[in-house]
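FAQ: What does the model actually see?

It sees only this:
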Amino acid sequence: MDDNEELDYVEEDYYATLNLPRTATQEEISKAYRNLSRIFHPDKHGNGENKQKAELMFNRTKKAYEVLSDPHQRAIYDSLGVKGLETEGWEIVHRTKTPNEIREEYERLAQEREERRLHQKTNPRGNISVHINATDFFSRYDDEYYDTGLLPSIEVSGMSMSQSIEAPLSRTEIATLSGSLHLQNGVGSGNFLLSGKRLINKGWFEVDCGAGNGPVLGAKGSRNLTNRIFLTGGTTFHFRPNAIIPGLTGTIQLDKNTVGYLTYNAGLQNSMSTVVERNTEKYHCNLTITLGIPHCYVAASYTRKLLEQGLKLRVALKGGTFGFLSECGAEKKVSKYSAVSATVCVGVPSGVMLKIKIIRSTQTYLFPIHLSEEIIPAAIFYATVTPLLTYFVLKKMLFDPMNEATKQKNIEKVKETNSARMAEKRREAESAISLMGALYERIRKDEYKSQGLIIVSALYGKFSDGENVSLEEADDMGFVQQNPYVIDVRIPLQCLVKDSQLILYSSSKSELPGFYDPCFGEEKQLKIDYEFRNVSYSSVFADAEPVRLPVVTNDTAQ
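And it is asked to produce this:
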C-alpha cells in the first residue's frame, strides 16, 4: 500500500569502507586505516590520472577514519548515520559525556523529529465506528406475524464519528478543535470542543470550551513533582444538573518500563481506579482495578509484540458487577502507516462480538459486529476463522501486489534521486581497482608460493543460480552482452586476503573498496571461486552475510 514513504538515500558505510565490524576497537580502526593508506595515498602514485584517483579514494578512507576514531562522532554515526553527523547542534553537546549518553540524546532528538514530522503529515485525526447487528445469523428471531425472509438480516445499529485538528500557535501553545457525532438506534447526539494548551515549566495547562448536551467549560493541568511522580487534575463545568465533575490523577513511574496510575473522579459518576502498566519492546501488559458507581471491575491485558513480523497478539480479561468479558485478537501491520486488527469478544451478558479495526496513519475505522447475544460455539468459531481466511485472501490478492508495486516504484524513485551518487560510487570502485594492481600481483604471488588462498573468480550482484552466473548474458535475440546486474570483484577481494584468510563482516559489500551496487534495491549475492592448498572450492554468500575463507572442513583442516 502506498504510504508515500520517505525515500532512502545512499549513505556511506564507514565500517565497510575500512572492512571492520561495528564492534571494532580503536587499534583495529587505526590498523585498517594504515593498510588502506598504503594503497591509496596520493604520494605513492606520482602525478597524472592515477594520483587524482588516489586522492579520491584516500579522502574517502580518511573521512571514515576521522569519524570512527572519534568516540563522540562514532556514537552519533552508530545511532543516526551520516545524517546525524550533519545535524546542526550536535557539536555543542558537552564532550565529557560518554558515547552512550550522546547516543541516547540523539536517539531522543531523532525520535522527537520523527514524531513532529508524522504529526504534521497526518493531521487531522479521526475515528469512525460502525456498529453492526448480525445476531440473526446464529439465533434467528421467529415471529409468526412478521416474515423474516430466507436470508438473515444485517443492520447497522449505531454509528459514531470524531475528528480533531491541532494548530500549533507557537512553540509552547497549541489549539485543538474536535467534534463528534453519535447515532444509536435512531437517537443521535453530538458535541464540539475547542481547547488551548500551553506548555509551562515542568508541566502544562489547558482550557476547554464547547457545546453538546449543554455548554461546557473546563480546565486541567499537569505538573512534574519529581522525576518519577507527576499530578494531573481537572475540573469540568457542564451547565446542567449535577454539573461539576472534578478529577485528579497521579502518576508514579516505577521503573524505565513500568508506570502506575492512581485516579479519582467525582461528579456524575464517582470512581477510583488503580492501574499498573508495563511496556517493553517485546510485550505490553496492563492491570486495572476500579471501584465506582455504577460499576466495579478488574481488568487485565497482555500484548505480545512480534516486531520482525509486524504482528501484535493480545488477550484480555475483564470482570465486575456488569458481568464478564474475554478478548483475543491480533493486529498486523500491512504497510508503514497502515494496520488491520481483528478481536473476538466473548462475555456475559454481551454474548459474542467480532471487532474489525483498520488503522490508516492516525485515522481509525472500527467495525464492531455483534454475532450473538448468548455464548454460541458456532459464533465463536466463525468469528475466529473468518478474519484469518479473509486476511490471507486479501494478502495474496491485494496487499502483496500493492506492496510490491509500491516497492518497485520507490526503488525507481531512489535510483533517480541517487543517480549522481551511484555513478560516483561506480567511478570510485573503478579507481580503487586500477590502484590495486601492484598489491594484487604481490598478494597473489605470495599466496601461490604458500599454497594459500587464491581468488580465481568473484562475482557480486543479482543472480539466482550460483552455478550459471556470468558477467555476460544473451539477450532475447541471442546476442551476448554485458550483464548489468553483476560486477567482477576478484581483484578487490584478493587484496583483502591476509595470511591466507579472507574476512568480511556483516554489512552490505557494496561499500567495500572496489565494490559498488550494480542493482540498487535488489537482493544481491557474492559468489567466490577460490583455491586453497591446490584444491578448488566455490561459495555463495548473501549481501550482508559475513564471509570467512577458507571454509573450515575436514579436508581443509588436515
